[in-house]
Input
Amino acid sequence: MKFLANLALLASLASAASMGKRSQPLDIQIEQVGNSVVKATITNTGAEDLRLLKTGGLLDSAPVEKVKVFQGNNKLDFEGIRLRLMNGAFADEAFQTIPAGQTIEISFDAAELHDLTTTGDYDFVASGVLSFATTDRNEVAGVIPYSSNTITAKVDGEEAAKVRSAFVKRTSVQSDCTGSKLTATRNAVTNCRSFASRASSAALSNTAKVQEYFKSTSVGSTVASVFARVVSECGSTSSGSSRTYCSDIYGACSSNVLAYTLPSNSYIVNCPLCALPATTGTCHAQDQATTTLHEVTHLNSVAGTDDLGYGYAAATRLSSSQALNNADSYALFANAIAVGC
Output
């Protein structure tokens, strides 16, 4: 069955992303609460306290992907936000400690981020990785893969539609980008276009770099076509399929979040974008241009990428198919071509 194949894929993604991991000390059980609310019970089954990063993962209060949802053989699109995180130390509040042997519970409404408007049975599973830090440092030390039980839940589509409607923001106001934020945003879009244009050409000629970042020499045309769509999207600051904001319209600009995208509605939100240089001369470093490029690849009209590996070490350990679906792989490739890595 395709559903079982999808679950196998999720397991492989967790395994591939688990570099620097410890043994799996997390037991996660999910259950349906009410119509479309999912409750996750998370137990630390290990002998040590776990200090888990909330940002971008299962413990985040922001509308990030917490469960995969299937209806029959089809995996439903995730319609929440995709984040780009700043490398380095996080604030204390970005972590949650689960003492050894202890359990915490979180709940979220799956109807906000998935189209459950058709009444019927849906399958839910929570699968992925959670980053952890040591007790004395606020930097990510590794990741812990997890996979919950799978539940089948009957959902009332009419009630789910009300939840979905309340979540989606339809504002088109973009005048919140002013002063230095406006300058940074415009420059980032302009530089995004330049970086993507050079990367698109390189993807067709530099097979060594395509192999390094996308793990195959035969995918150059696919990579080039994605960058070509980025060029088109970053070709103007006043047109295109996306809308860019400088105010936190979904309340997700927490510690180390540089920007995020709501692919389903083509919103891009810049958080502390001005904290980065406009461009960098350092290999695999972050800047405003590649952050914008990273977010643009998340757009459904461009590539609809996921976040499967942040940074060079994680991104270059993905398989070819995973790298082609990983936003940071494109950002890192564009940086490499621009800087001459």
User: Anything to note?
Assistant: The first helix runs from residue 2 to 16. The chain is about 30% helix and 25% strand. The two ends are 43 Å apart (CA to CA).
